[in-house]
Amino acid sequence: MIEACDGSGRVRRPDQVAVEYPLTVHLNDTELATLLCTPEHLEDLVVGFLHGEGLIVGLDDLAELGIAAAAGAAMVSLRRPISLADRLYARRVVATGCGQGGGDFYKALDALQIKPLSQPGDGGRHGRGLAKEAILTAARDLQTRSGLFRETGGVHTAVLCASTGAPLVGRDDIGRHNAVDKVVGSLLREPLAEAGDGPSFLMVTGRISSDIVLKAARAGLAVIASRSAPTSLAVDLAVRLNLALVGFVRGRRMNIYTSVERIG
Amino acid sequence: MIEACDGSGRVRRPDQVAVEYPLTVHLNDTELATLLCTPEHLEDLVVGFLHGEGLIVGLDDLAELGIAAAAGAAMVSLRRPISLADRLYARRVVATGCGQGGGDFYKALDALQIKPLSQPGDGGRHGRGLAKEAILTAARDLQTRSGLFRETGGVHTAVLCASTGAPLVGRDDIGRHNAVDKVVGSLLREPLAEAGDGPSFLMVTGRISSDIVLKAARAGLAVIASRSAPTSLAVDLAVRLNLALVGFVRGRRMNIYTSVERIG
Question: Residue B232, Cα to own-chain centre: how many angstroms?
């Protein structure tokens, strides 16, 4: 029960808040991280998180994944032993490198083993332009989509959209990063049979920060769009990785920050 | 330069995005964490972060704090040696404990050494009621305050307000947590000479999640208000810690989730 106040008085009524759930990921019996998340699609979340951190390339790298929901624990074992020291080193480099010059920046990306996406015109899978209309459609859908958001006002959404703007996979979470991890995890766990002809893209509700760009680039997604703004580091990373950032998608408007040639 | 599109065409124009800056905190020569932040008030941020993590109680615990801005590094040394293992243990308990029953929950709070705030009526410093009008005033000010937000659309603000709703200390950051850390850090570095008669409170732009509640409780702040929603874990924690959560402060409306008796 909450007390709802307005100009004229107070009333006690039931209310619903977004659930925040702590999920601790154990990797090969070592505690890796605790994700504060919305407790839905937890397998997607864990797989996407491991992928975004560069710990797995695909589902084949996983020997086992178990979720103990009541204990708030995810138990993961990998087929190949990985060095946690290596992983921490990669994080350290990217974290401290990005604030410095271009040379360190490239070294940081090398350490993360993220390759730039193919340029439009190179003939790669990201070569074709995405219609502006598709992004406007996706933004409209996003606003009507999230019932959880309307009810509780505290949830982010990420949606993988077809080149028409139609939603392919959508996930909600109280965390911006978690929503993206869940979408990527879902794609790894159940690859889409048919994503349509053109390039797919990622539509998100929250701010586009550097870590969102890294997650998308690892997943091979060449366009990220949002109603919100990108950050400076996100723009820098997107330029280096050939990824298009589209912000402030509102009504008929949008701002294209990078890789303008990807938006047709 | 960005391409700004609307219904009728495209135009290239300069644009400003929020700066995202990686600051790596080194504690006694051990790398502690990298904060992705807005590069302003970095000393406040580091002090508030250390306080929020339970690593320092006050400024006296700090032997040295140096910021190497170009390298993106903060070098901290403490007067007393602390065990990183202890700290990690505390984090682990809270992370995994909160998802379980009440007993583990209390143990988790014990591990974090956060005491419940004094109840209204106990005669403590948090005993007096806060006027609803003060929260409405603070919410209005918050909307007009943040020039950075209006320009870039990607920044959170936290403001410590007097019992009248007047701003005492305000800080902006691309991260919700960082903005709160900066306010708390500022209070530790330069205690306010005069905060007025009644209870002060924290007004924030973003969602109120569990970690925001923990930071506020550690800083002895008994009321958090926001235009956005609290999460379930935030509400649970606020109940145990006797902290009032006020959400959806918009126009003349607000929802009081916990410690209703603190709002007069």
Answer: 18
